[in-house]
Amino acid sequence: MSTPPPLASGPEGPYHLRPLLDTVLDALHTGGRARGGPLPAGGPGAVTAAVRDAVGDVLPDQGDPDALRTLVHVFAEGAADPAHPLCAAHLHCPPLAVAAAADLAASALNPSLDSWDQAPAASALEALVTRALAHEAGHTDSVVTSGGTESNQLALLLAREALGGTVRLVHGAGAHHSLPRAAWLLGLPDPVEIPAPTGTLDPAALDDALTRLPGPHLVAATAGTTDAGLIDPLPEIAARCAAHGARLHVDAAYGGPLLFSDLHRPGLTGLEAAHTITLDLHKLGWQPVPAGLLTVRDAQDLTVLRHRADYLNADDDTEAGFPDLLGRSLRTTRRPDVLKLAVTLRTLGRAGLGALVDRVCAHAQEFARLVQDDPRLELHDRPVISTVLFRPAHATDTDVAALRRHLLTTGRAVLGRARADGRLWLKATLLNPTARPEDLAGLLTLVHQAHAEGPR
Predict the structure, then answer these.
(1) pLDDT tens for residues 299-317?
(2) Stretch 153-170: mean pLDDT, rounded?
(3) Under a CB-based contact definition with an 8 Å cutoff, are residues 73 and 30 in contact?
(4) End-to-end CA gap in the chain
(5) CA 413, CA 40: separation in Å to the nearest integer?
(6) Angle, to 10 degrees, between the axis of helix 338-372 and the axis of helix 97-109?
(7) What percent of the chain has pLDDT over 90?
(8) Which end of the chain is more exposed for a tag (fewer CB within 10 A), N or C?
(9) DSSP readout, 251-294?
(10) Are the CB atoms for 279 and 293 separated by under 8 Å?
(11) Residue 232, helix vs strand vs coil
């Protein structure tokens, strides 16, 4: 019988991993160098062909000892690199090296947070970190999620259990698409969308809707819209909700980490009034995906998640002091995503994280200034967080869409797109704290070049 392949944990695990890590790091380097820019050139067809050629037979009769090097190389060569200064399309952050290193330990030890006997230290660490981050937002507790979408779904579930199945979601036009989708998944009444001509939820229009519509209501405000990074007027919205007895959820998946910055924290005034808050540290928190949380003002709200499976949380085990982890998520198997969060928080501290937030927000202000000072470009508005919308002056929406696709297929730059004021805009989401002023100027140079070249 052949010798089994080595395992990642156990007494010999670190020794087995070390040469494999050398292989991975070398392949990441060679693959990134072969890519040469923020995105592989050639578009979807070229990338798909390269991956297909590298993989060959997905499940061959006999294994290939060089598969790790081969596949990591093609994976890196065909990646969109969020650490490249010209990769600025989405809320897709470059992860901190220390967070990625911590994630390796989580993968090697492979704890599963559905019972204490699979994750003793991980369960204790998660309890500490989730409460600390909840307190940062003015709440009492939080649970770990896979990101903003799951957090928003869970927020609607808690609202349904608190207010009943007739609770109606009321949200602004700029709210994340996962909110109305969650209402559909949970069988709730059709959501009501409040027009947001300025990009944020209008308290007066909200007040009118809450007056007209039969309750109960769940109002969803946003602290950092996906398209433009705008923050709804949270104190005014909270006051309207209190006046009408409506429950309030704030989706702060993007803007939540402003809490770490002394400079930008005031922009989230009123956040603590929400019943639930979505946070997502794989956006403005520089964590590998996933790194989401849902915080609750009242920890009792989480009791509806309690669930019994005798092999995981038998009553007598719980009574004997073993933590019941099933009530901390709708998922059963859960990886210890809290480790990378804890390592990052302890390594950088509030000051270090706040400094990163300040840097990317400053980059956005500088980028907006460069756009505003260039007569060939049009700026939509000054940024609130780190998102800038702009477009070539006098361009049509068709021109803007074609320009962006041209940059993508040539692999020169990665910009997003957003609609605002009835027009299509290029979107730069600046999350790279290591970007330099010349990188920002270089991005605009590429936009001018692509616009001059025209559609391809």
Answers:
(1) 999 999 999 999 999 999 9
(2) 98
(3) yes
(4) 58
(5) 10
(6) 150
(7) 98
(8) N
(9) EETTTGGGGG-TTTGGGGTTGGGSSEEEEETTTTT--PSP-EEE
(10) yes
(11) coil
